[in-house]
Amino acid sequence: MTATLEREIKLRFDSADAARSAVLATGAVSIRGRRLQEDCLLDTADETLHHRRCVLRVRMESGKSLVTFKGPVQPSDMLLREELETIVGDGPLLLRILEELGFRVWFRYEKYREEFVLDDVIVAVDETPLGTFVEIEGGDRGIADMAVALGRNPSDYLLDSYRGLFCAHRRQLGLPATHMLFDGD
After folding, report:
1. Per-residue pLDDT tens digits for 29-54
2. Is 111 contained in some domain?
3. Coil, helix or strand at residue 144
4. Is 55 helix (H, G, I), strand (E, B) or coil?
5. pLDDT of 183
6. In the chain, how many domains are there?
7. H-helix or E-strand spanning residue 16
8. Do the Cβ atoms of 123 and 25 come closer than 8 Å?
9. What does each C-alpha distance from 50 to 42, 61, 73, 108, 115 come to in angstroms?
10. Domain that holds residue 95
11. How far is CA 54 from CA 48, 50, 102, 167, 177, in A?
12. What percentage of residues in the chain have a pLDDT greater than 90?
């Protein structure tokens, strides 16, 4: 199990190629290739986690799975929250166990992600049904320095989750929030 204080920002880019080129131009090095991540957010029927401003996520990618608990967002210039995460052997089975314990999947989302590293930051290029984003995770200084290296400043920081960004986008279109999937389901 890994327990950390997660600190991150997102930046919007016009395309995955533009994002990748910008990240590589900073001197960042590829550490994980492009792969599909399938995420499921879970909660109880009475939304216990939502009321606590917490998230329970099961992520499945390339035959591997992670379960993650995220605590409430803390006041910061960046997205800051406690994160507890561990590898699980069988994501679909874990989802079934959690459902038997009273949790239900209430939101699913997909993205293609590739990851890079430079100094103390992990930089992800995320292709989502909503568009392309660069997510920078690490220490305050490293995140700010990477954002500057990418030609961005604090006014460009997106501090919401992908679900939050997706719901805001759907509201702007006058559409209900569904799952954020490439096939539109």
Report:
1. 999 999 999 999 999 999 999 999 99
2. yes
3. helix
4. strand
5. 87
6. 1
7. helix 16-25
8. no
9. 10, 25, 12, 15, 29
10. 2-172
11. 9, 6, 16, 17, 19
12. 89
179 assigned to some structural domain: no
What is the token pair recorded at 45?
Answer: 């029927």
pTM of the predicted structure, to 2 decimals:
0.92
Torsional sign, CA 153, 154, 160, 165: negative
Query: What are the tokens at 113?
Result: 């992600």
Spell out the residues 6+ positions from residue 92 whose beta carbon is closer than 8 angstroms to its own.
60
Residue 184 lies in a domain: no
Q: Tokens at residue 179, please?
A: 């799952």
DSSP reduced 3-state for 142: helix
23 in any annotated domain: yes
Domain holding 54: CATH number? Answer: 2.40.320.10
Given a cut of 70, whether residue 1 has pLDDT beyond it is: no
**Where do we find the tokens 């679900």?**
163
pLDDT tens, position by position, 117-169: 999 999 999 999 999 999 999 999 999 999 999 999 999 999 999 999 999 99
